[in-house]
Amino acid sequence: MLITFEGIDGAGKSTQIKMLAGYLGSQQREVLVLREPGGTEVAEKIRSILLESKGEISPIGELLLFSASRAELVQEVILPAIAAGKIVILDRFFDSTTAYQGYGRGIDFTLLQSIISISTCGIVPDITFYLDIEPGEAMRRKFSKTSIPLSFEHSELDRMERSGAIFFRNVREGYLKMISSNKERFLCIDALLPETTIHRKIIALLHERFPL
Ligand code: TYD
User: Fold this and answer.
1) Is the minimum distance from the CB of 69 to ligand 1 under 6 angstroms?
2) Which one in 1, 31, 87, 159 has a CA-CA gap of 20 to 30 Å to 128?
């Protein structure tokens, strides 16, 4: 089984993933938590190129790097884990590519679709939790624990996070469009709710869809 989490940076995915993995573990389920980009030696190297490079990367170069990282993770880790009956929880998958490289960078959707199907070997999540937050609020959360002034261009941010307020607004709108056209797979949750409320909702929605 493949469960994915999506949302703009700062939506709180990692906290919810930890809580869900803990819950499923307590139900004696074998769980594997992974994140994209990364998860294999090569994919981690690609991650650092994508996030830590100081210079520009072209939109197509960026798309191909995310996709190369994904191809490695799918073939080396995800497919074998699913075949072994594990529950794989993935922090971002190809929906991030549609949202960030498609709606954010403006890459043609037909091109995206074919690259996505090659890099994923055609696998699609059983369920996708989207944590919804307004980009300004997500940034405020990120900076709330520091004395650094709030800015989308700050050097503390990674290369993707420095993409600016308009980029993140387009990414969020993209996610919302994707959800409204695929309500079967996507479940949208308000990221501003308290952590434990979100966790309880996730468990309830998961049980509603899949008798685990
Ligand atoms: P990460 O630090 O993992 O961010 P987060 O904690 O928000 O998930 O960085 C991953 C960044 O890469 C994030 O800004 C989203 C972006 N991304 C894409 O643009 N396309 C993709 O296909 C994927 C997987 C991630």
Assistant:
1) no
2) 159
* Distance set, CA 56 to CA 17, 59, 87, 115, 152 (Å): 31, 9, 37, 22, 16
Q: Is 49 in the pocket of ligand 1 (CB under 6 A)?
A: no
Instruction: Give me 92's structure tokens.
Output: 């971002």
Which domains occur in the chain, in start order?
2-209 (3.40.50.300)
Q: Which long-range contacts (CB under 8 A, 24 or more apart) does 202-207 make?
A: 202/16, 202/19, 202/20, 202/129, 203/20, 203/23, 205/127, 205/129, 206/3, 206/20, 206/127
- Looking at residue 145, what DSSP letter applies? T
Q: Is the CB of 66 under 6 A from ligand 1?
A: yes
Ligand 1 center to residue 142 CA distance, Å? 15
Q: What is the rounded CA–CA span in Å between residue 68 and residue 64?
A: 6
Q: Is the pTM of this model over 0.85?
A: yes
Report the separation in Å between the CA atom of 211 and the middle of ligand 1, taken as the mean of its atom positions: 30
Contact criterion met (CB below 8 Å) for 119 and 70: yes
Contact 93, 36 (CB under 8 A): yes
pLDDT tens string for the chain (212 positions)? Answer: 999 999 998 899 999 999 999 999 999 999 999 999 999 999 999 999 999 998 899 999 999 999 999 999 999 999 999 999 999 999 999 999 999 999 999 999 999 999 999 999 999 999 999 999 999 999 888 777 666 666 666 667 888 988 999 999 999 999 999 999 999 999 999 999 999 999 999 999 999 998 76
